[in-house]
């Protein structure tokens, strides 16, 4: 009820499939190195890439969210906690073209070097729809 953010992903998905991108697609919402963050009552739709990507954050609540992307949209994960701790993800609806939730601890050797695993993440009361490939 508090609004929505539209990433207009169709533009990016078309370029991605046609191999016309010279750089990566960005996530729709990315917050980094933050604490005591609340995401609530927002619709996030048609992200170019991952939809909600908290990175190295602590004490994050994600509640009453609606996250939408077409099933054929590439790599449009719903929520990707990355090197985060003390997080609650609850009471939300996620319908996307890839993973509903993908808990990460960095990317390849960068994640190993950074050395911050995700931990203490509570996930409850979600409806998740995704494309099985």
Automatic annotation (TrEMBL):
Keywords: Glycosidase, Hydrolase. The keyword Hydrolase applies. One of its GO terms (molecular function) is polygalacturonase activity. Transmembrane segments: none annotated. One of its GO terms (biological process) is carbohydrate metabolic process. SUPFAM superfamilies: Pectin lyase-like. It comes from the Eukaryota. Belongs to the glycosyl hydrolase 28 family. This is Polygalacturonase. It comes from Brassica oleracea var. oleracea.
């Amino acid at each position: 009820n508090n609004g929505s953010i539209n990433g207009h992903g169709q533009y990016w998905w078309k370029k991605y499939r046609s191999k016309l991108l010279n750089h990566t697609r960005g996530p729709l919402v990315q917050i980094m190195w933050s604490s005591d963050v609340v995401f609530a009552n927002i619709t996030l739709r048609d992200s170019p890439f991952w939809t909600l990507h908290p990175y190295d954050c602590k004490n994050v609540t994600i509640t009453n969210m609606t996250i939408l992307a077409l099933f054929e949209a590439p790599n449009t994960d719903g929520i990707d906690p990355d090197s985060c701790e003390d997080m609650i993800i609850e009471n939300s609806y996620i319908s996307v073209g890839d993973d509903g939730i993908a808990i990460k601890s960095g990317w390849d050797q960068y994640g190993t070097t950074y050395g911050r695993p995700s931990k203490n993440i509570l996930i409850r009361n979600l409806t998740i729809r995704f494309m099985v490939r």
